[in-house]
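#onboarding

Welcome to the new folks! Below is a worked example of what a typical request in this channel looks like: someone posts a single protein sequence, and someone else replies with the predicted structure as tokens. Don't worry about understanding the tokens yet, we'll cover that in week two.

Example request:
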Amino acid sequence: MAITQIELEQLIKDSFPDAEVIIRDLAGDGNHYSAVVVDESFRGKNRVQQQRAVYAALKGKMDGPSGELHALALTTKVPE
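Example response:
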């Protein structure tokens, strides 16, 4: 089962309501996306901590072989 671009963005926005979120479907199959998430809450955190926070927001959608999301190329940033 795939996840839509809108569903993916909403999962991230639920945890980061003030974030700038840009999602791109990389393969057109609903399983391979790229995401850029820019949020003030990332300030002072290293890249791994930032990305773990975003993956936690996905609420298991990437977990295991039956996950709804197969691949996510993730970039996290603090606002300039």
